Amino acid sequence: DxxxxxxxxxxxxxxGTPVTLRCHQTExxxxxxxxxxDPGHGLRLIHYxxxxxxxxxxxxSDGYSVSRSKTEDFLLTLESATSSQTSVYxxxxxxxxxSGASMNTEAFFGQGTRLTVV
Amino acid sequence: LAKTTQPISMDSYxxxxxxxxxxxxxxxxxxxxxxxxxxxxxxxxFIIQGxxxxxxxxxxxxxxxxxxKSSTLSLPRVSLSDTAVYYCLVGGFKAAGNKLTFGGGxxxxxxx
Lengths: 118, 112
Hints:
The complex is a heterodimer. Chain A is an all-beta fold.
């Protein structure tokens, strides 16, 4: 399995408090992603990074910020958590490039963080 | 980004072949088609990727017609453990980033 670790794995927090989730990789992959998954929904992209200090918004970025100060860590911050941010959060990594006639966009996912905002 | 459309759910029985078709009418020239599998309480896992024609690995086959506006994931002789959600993604490498965007997925239930 790819070396990707999410922490914490579970967290319960109160509305209005800041929360930071960490994604750590040991694969030296260039791209890192944060997704959320809610019951009845697929994965929705929050933010992603294509290099150190290079990040961009996904489809559901409101209320979230990210930082990537080094290759191995990608942090997701909820500045002021709301109940609507109760979800399972997945981090993913990938190293895209062209290799001969094929392109590797395989992404490896972490085990997820279950966040409950009460 | 090319939008994908897949059936919401499919039922099958052990030993049968399961075929899931994904529509991606506005696929770009440099886009690849990738399928992921997700079990409950786990992150998605890569299954297969292709650009055109047919790709086969130890898990599945991927059929892509010449116009590339759709693709079909084929799971041969499924077992109960193949019960999962399957996602079709379309995208390609871009200098500014590789935005992996998932659609709703297809929930496959394999019955005994």
